[in-house]
Amino acid sequence: MTRLDLSDILLPDTPFFITAFYQFIPITDPEKMKLQLTEKAQELGILGLIVLGTEGFNATTCCQNKDHFEAWKKYFKELFNLESLNNKDSESQLPPFLKLSIKVKPEIVTTGRTDLKLPKEKQNQNFHLSPDEWEEVLRSEKEDVVVIDTRNWYEYQLGTFNGALNPNIEKFTEFPNYFKKQNISPDKKILIFCTGGIRCEKGILELQEEGFNNVYQLEGGILNYLKEKPHQSFTGECFVFDNRVAVDQELKPTTIYKLCPHCGQPAATRLQCVRCDHEYLICESCVKIESKKDTCSKNCAFQWQLNKKKGPHQEAPYSKVIKKLKT
Ligand SMILES: [Zn+2]
Ligand SMILES: [Zn+2]
Predict the structure, then answer these.
(1) 135 with 92, same domain?
(2) Could you tell me which residues are beta bridge partners of residue 53?
(3) Among 11, 23, 211, 233, which residue carries the largest CB count within 10 Å?
(4) Residue 79: pLDDT above 70?
(5) CATH number of the domain enclosing 82
(6) Which of 6-10, 140-144, 254-258 has the lowest mean pLDDT?
(7) Structural domain includes residue 193
(8) How far is Cα 236 from Cα 157, in angstroms, rounded to an integer?
(9) Contact yes or no for 257/266 (Cβ under 8 A)
(10) Strand, coil or helix: what is 283?
(11) Same domain for 125 and 100?
(12) Are residues 76 and 154 in the same domain?
């Protein structure tokens, strides 16, 4: 993890340009690549999360300087000798990330199956439907296709494609098991989707292994779809794994959800803390739990349980940065 000096980087009133991208590509020495990328990211003031592995990379990064942002995307393409990179871009007034974190992992999207390799000929060629094609299939073959959301239950809750099945899973590694239990006929046409497309790349391989060869994924995931087709077959908002929590149909940061202070799931129920009187949002699950629902943080929950005395509100690290940015 690399800590950058945020006071040098964060500028008030300037949006953050965000890009999400991945590529399955053999990387012989991910550790060496990590050093190179760290150096370049620091030079350009890039924040975010990058996962590197011998199978490729998976990243969401941001930058407030538009020129640096474009240079960063170009650098990635050149470094890995790629003709194109499927960047899913968006903007936010508040920082989606407060630091740069580059991790080397056995898998760039966790399936628990390191043996599962995406053959080169299958990359970005087969089994991908563009937002246009996806929409067309949804409309014209509605009765004949099975649409499955491969994301976790809390992502599904915020928004999904109309009529999509909800596997109700806690993490993606549970997806194959869910699928096996559905008893779907192997010749049925199956459409799967996720946030940016990477989970489905592996998902398709797992389903093909089970003998399902009529499976298609939404190219670039929901983020790519919403860019082209807002307010159509997708209803609600799209959960993202950064400080924005979710993006709306226009890919703007959500104004509905925050992360629940107790469990980290998306939260939308507004309450006032019994200890510090601070207003906060809590999730559907925690609002049902007596010991959690009354307090705005783990700290307040702990203190309140201890002595039932009022106390000052403690600013979370992210809120502190936001306040500084606004002043
Ligand atoms: Zn919660
Ligand atoms: Zn509180």
Answers:
(1) no
(2) 56
(3) 23
(4) yes
(5) 3.30.70.100
(6) 6-10
(7) yes
(8) 9
(9) yes
(10) coil
(11) no
(12) no
Domain total in the chain:
3
- Cα 301 to middle of ligand 2, angstroms: 7
Candidates 251, 262, 265; CA nearest to 89 is: 251
Domain boundary, last residue among 221, 246, 280: 221
pLDDT at 91 over 60: yes
Long-range contacts of 278-281 (CB under 8 A, 24+ apart): 278/313, 281/257
In the three-class reduction of DSSP (H, G, I as helix; E, B as strand; rest coil), residue 21 is classed as strand
CATH code at position 159: 3.40.250.10
Structure tokens at 140: 């014209």
Q: Is residue 111 part of a domain?
A: no
Both tokens assigned to 51: 């996962």
Residues 33-69: tens digit of each pLDDT: 999 999 999 999 999 999 999 999 999 999 999 999 9
Residue 318 CA, ligand 2 centroid: distance in Å: 16
My answer on whether 93 and 150 are in the same domain is no
CA of 278 to the centre of ligand 2 (A): 6
112 assigned to some structural domain: no
So what's the pLDDT on residue 5?
Answer: 59
Domain that holds residue 295: 258-326
Residue 60 host element (H or E): strand 56-63
What is the C-alpha separation between 161 and 233, in angstroms, rounded? 6
Round to whole Å and give the CA distance between 100 and 48. 5
Mean pLDDT in the chain?
A: 91
Catalytic choice (62, 194, 200, 296): 194
User: Does residue 194 carry a catalytic annotation?
Assistant: yes
* pTM score above 0.85: yes
Task: Establish if 93 belongs to a structural domain.
Answer: yes
Same domain flag for 212 and 128 = yes
Q: Give the C-alpha separation, 34 to 56, whole Å.
A: 12
Ligand 1 centroid – CA 35 distance (Å) = 37
